[in-house]
Automatic annotation (TrEMBL):
It holds the Pfam family Gln-synt_C. Homooctamer and homotetramer. It catalyses: L-glutamate + NH4(+) + ATP = L-glutamine + ADP + phosphate + H(+). Residues 87-341 form the GS catalytic domain. Its EC number is 6.3.1.2. Residues 4-85 form the GS beta-grasp domain. Catalyzes the ATP-dependent biosynthesis of glutamine from glutamate and ammonia. This is Glutamine synthetase. The keyword Acetylation does not apply. Keywords: ATP-binding, Ligase, Nucleotide-binding. Belongs to the glutamine synthetase family. InterPro entries: Gln_synt_N, Gln_synt_N_sf, Gln_synth/guanido_kin_cat_dom, Gln_synth_cat_dom, Gln_synth_gly_rich_site, Gln_synth_N_conserv_site, Glutamine_Synthetase.
Length: 341
């Protein structure tokens, strides 16, 4: 008789920025399969998801991964349900169009700052001052400009051991700022993997006296903010071979700029200023290889004959990938374009 540790992970009810929550369930002779993960409950009154008089909410398992930090451990991503089994209002995963989910592929570029819990500053920032200006930190090597590599490398190993489709890591433009990339076919699948990757990163910081700052502009002044760039495609974008179709899809985003910004992360106005590789939050633009645009058309998409993907550069680092994916899918579908047979 074996015992397994199932870590149930969910998003709480804090608004507009949800937090990760988790707790451990011990199961006997567990198969390791999603279908054998039971629905569990939690106290929603402690997570801003229910009142104390009726606090029981349900956790429905939706994805499972091996837990690289625990013997006989599993990471179980869940959706929050009401006690009667209906979708809870905070269940952002459920807002993704199920009919379009599999058609869309997403690659998220998650930027973040590693913060020292003692100083409350990004790694590399001296108390009462600043490190050298931006320029030498991006993709740097060596102790002068590179900070936090041990944590970042362990996180990459954990994500790979967990079976996430983890695509890479690099130090970013600001001091103490890093990025990882996750790609998945299916919008819900992509969102699940980003949240589990965030969970593993957050949990690792407990070993170092660090914490992860997902605020899109934690350091004011001439420092890059943090985004979660959303690379996306569907069958139309992967096969159309048409500049005109790409431009029509991009134009579909223009009249709903506000609707996108509303779900692209809290405090994003501090990041989307038109500086530091961003477009202004008050403007919309798209362009080939333009990192100052709202939507970048990658040069590889053009070189492959207008068959590829688009990158929405506006989502903030603290955005919910489920909400971002749901809104992008809705807008792309609104263009009402079909590939001719």
């Amino acid at each position: 008789m074996s015992k397994s540790k199932l870590e149930y992970i969910w998003l709480d009810g804090y608004h507009p920025t949800a937090n990760l929550r988790s707790k451990t369930k011990i199961e006997t002779d567990f198969s390791g399969k999603l279908e054998d993960c039971p629905i569990w409950s939690f106290d929603g009154s402690s997570t801003k998801q229910a009142e104390g008089g009726a606090s029981d909410l349900l956790l429905k398992p939706v994805a499972i991964y091996p837990d690289p930090a625990r013997e006989n451990g599993f990471l179980v991503m869940t959706e929050v349900l009401n006690a009667d089994g209906t979708q809870h209002v905070t269940n952002s995963r459920a807002t993704i169009d199920g009919d379009a989910d599999d058609d869309f592929w997403f690659g998220f570029e998650q930027e973040y700052f590693i913060m020292d819990s003692h100083t409350q500053l990004p790694l590399g920032f001296p108390i009462g001052g600043y490190p050298g200006p931006q320029g030498l930190y991006y993709c740097s090597v060596g102790g002068r400009n590179t900070h936090g590599r041990e944590l970042v490398e362990r996180h990459a190993d954990y994500c790979l051991e967990a079976g996430l489709n983890f695509e890479g890591i690099n130090q970013e433009v600001a001091c103490g700022q890093w990025e990882f990339q996750v790609f998945a076919k299916g919008a819900k699948n992509a969102g699940d993997q980003v949240w589990v990757a965030r969970y593993l990163l957050d949990r690792l910081t407990e070993d170092y006296g660090y914490y992860i700052e997902y605020h899109p502009k934690p350091v004011k002044g001439d420092w890059n903010g943090s985004g979660m760039h959303a690379n996306f495609s569907n069958n139309l974008l992967r096969t159309c071979g048409s500049k005109e179709i790409y431009e029509k899809v991009c134009e579909a985003f223009r009249p709903v700029t506000r609707e996108h910004i509303e779900v692209y992360g809290e405090f994003n106005d501090e990041r989307l200023t038109g500086l530091h590789e961003t477009q202004s939050i008050h403007e919309f633009s798209f362009g080939v290889s333009d990192r100052g645009a709202s939507i970048r058309i990658p040069i590889l998409t053009v070189e492959k004959g207008w068959k590829g993907w688009l990158e929405d550069r506006r989502p903030a680092s603290n955005a919910d990938p489920y909400k971002v994916a749901a809104r992008i899918i809705k807008t792309v579908k609104s263009a009402n374009i079909e590939v001719e047979a």
